[in-house]
Amino acid sequence: MKRHPLSQRHVRGMIKLSVLLAVAVTLAGALQATGRLGVAPEGEPAHLVAPAELRPLADKYELDEEARQRLQRAYEALEAHEAKPKPDPVETNGPIFTDWPVPQAALVITGEQVGYLEPCGCAGLENQKGGLKRRHSMVKVLRDQWKWPLVMMDAGEQVRYVGPQAEIKYRYSIESLMEIGYHAVGFGPKDLRTDLLGLVINLPPDQTPLTSASIGVLGFDPDFSKRLRVVTVGEGAQAVRVAITHVMGPQALAETAPSDDLDKLSPNEALAAVLPEIAAAKADQNVLMVYGDRSEAEAIAREHDVFDWVVAGRGSDEPPSTARRIEGSRRGGGAMLVEVGHKGMYAVVVGLYRDQAAAAEGALKPGQGWLARYQKVPLDHRWADSPEMHAKLVAYQQELATLRWEGLGLKPRRHPTNEEFAGSAVCADCHTAAWEVFEKTPHFWTTETLVALNPARHLDPECISCHAVGWEPQKYYPFASGWVSHAATPHLSGNGCENCHGPAARHAAVELGDLDVDEAEETALRQALHLEVQENEGNMPGQVLGKAVDNCLQCHDLDNSPDFDFQEYWPVVKHEGMD
N or C: which end of the chain has fewer CB within 10 A? Predict the structure, then answer.
């Protein structure tokens, strides 16, 4: 199999450039020039609620007068951000599908979403990649506007954690991928820690995309999942058949939990069982998805040399710019490795074209007679937000809101210091200058920022954990005496003082004269809350990773705030001592 960018000679020998091709390429260039692809702007869901909805929302969530004022400030800040000029995604992340002819088939390959139904964080959506809303719009452009025949597959690991919220998120992920039009979806080890049987028995048997030769539900019952998918796109002489299977790599398989509902096979056992089906399918292209890293995927491909494309679903931060030939494989000139990246920030699209010149030379061996193009597609803000996926996100947030913390299995835990939270306003009694700085920063209204979004996200543990006082920001659970709701704990709104300095109720009681302790304990309480920024402290190479910046990185991490620079950020929030 020849796989390389097509020259003009190849294009002429392979296909006559039709009106459809000219229109598709022109359309691609025109849409790229606008910086938006997909849904028309007037049909795109808004990121913020309408101004008229603010008062009803404040009533619904029982915001007091101070919280209503913060909500208005949060909304104005979000509106101002929305009005700013946005970076050109093509300049930032590069052009895509430049001068591609219309393929006979296009493989759309994703994986390792790890819970990111949408981009998350403080950098602004225009600076982040990923999300099912953008992915769906990409598919709409390729399939519905450009009329490309798509074969869609995902290598697995839709969720990142375990527990009730992960169960709900996995269900919404699979339902969303079905609505987008995926043909095959594999598994990761965290996926298997959800109630997989409870999910699949409620999916239409003729529509479920779950696919794996390694993982079988109730003895590989074909109503629940398939070992192999054979997808045909196109018609007549232009039809293309693609066979897709999936295995778990050895490391991922070792991470799976025991389950009476699941059958688990090693990659070799799984492929030994499915290879006769692959041979009988006589597909034009065979694809193996491996939930494993590059080395595992390559080793499996060499051992079972019947695949044209091998997907490594784990291990890379982002897909490489080109596919790489797997040394030691031979089918069609050698299998090609595709890596999907992390957090669903990219899709990989492989365009397949019949090599008419090779076909004219005589009989072709399996896998031969095809040319291919490869594109790493950033899911940035060039893609509009899909209304259908937005509706899924709304339903997901509504379900979380209905269950509340108890229904999501969240039980408050004691803070490691065994202290309780007082609220930032109590700190303001003595630290007046620090308070004046704090109330001018977005930290002051972070809780209300979540209320102003469409949909609201302040009842989502994964969001509120960095947007209110008294939550564990990396594991998404509340501490005892931490924020519960606007009605129950209005004094703990915002990303306040105690999220960095620690819970201060006992310290405040001592300083205000409500609690009498000896001088040693009074001093110890003060020192426990003291933070001092060191010289050259920061999170960049060559800087000192001190306690202050380490606190910031609990929320401003690579997932949520990838461009965070402490030394640029600190002057905005800088505050010192008492006054």
Answer: C
Rounded to 10°, the helix 387-407/132-139 angle is 160
| DSSP alpha helix (H) spans, 191-266 | 196-200, 250-255
Rg for the chain (alpha carbons), in Å? 27
Mapped onto helix, strand or coil, the DSSP state of residue 483 is: coil
Per the prediction, the chain carries an average pLDDT of 90
* Burial group, residue 327, by CB count within 10 angstroms (0-12, 13-18, 19+): exposed
Q: Within 13 Å of residue 69, how many CA atoms lie on the same side as its CB?
A: 6
For 2, 140, 199, 488, 534, the CA distances from 202, given in Å and listed in that order, are 43, 27, 6, 37, 56
CB of 370 closer than 8 Å to CB of 284? yes
Distance between CA atoms of residues 379 and 321, nearest Å: 15
Condensed to tens digits (0 to 9), the pLDDT of residues 131-176 reads: 999 999 999 999 999 999 999 999 999 999 999 999 999 999 999 9
pTM: 0.91
Q: Which 3 state secondary structure label does DSSP give 398?
A: helix
Residues 6+ apart with CB under 8 A from 498: 421, 422, 423, 424, 427, 469, 470, 504
Strands (E), 121-222: 150-154, 184-185, 215-217
pLDDT at residue 3, as a whole number: 44
Residue located via tokens 């269900």: 171
Instruction: Provide the pairing of β-strand 215-217 with 346-354.
Output: unpaired
Residue 47 and residue 62: Cα distance in Å, rounded?
22
Give residue 302's Cα distance to chain centre.
31
Q: pLDDT category, 42, cuts 50, 70, 90?
A: low
Give dist(CA 135, CA 119) in Å, integer: 11
**Cis before residue 455, ω within 30 degrees of 0?**
yes
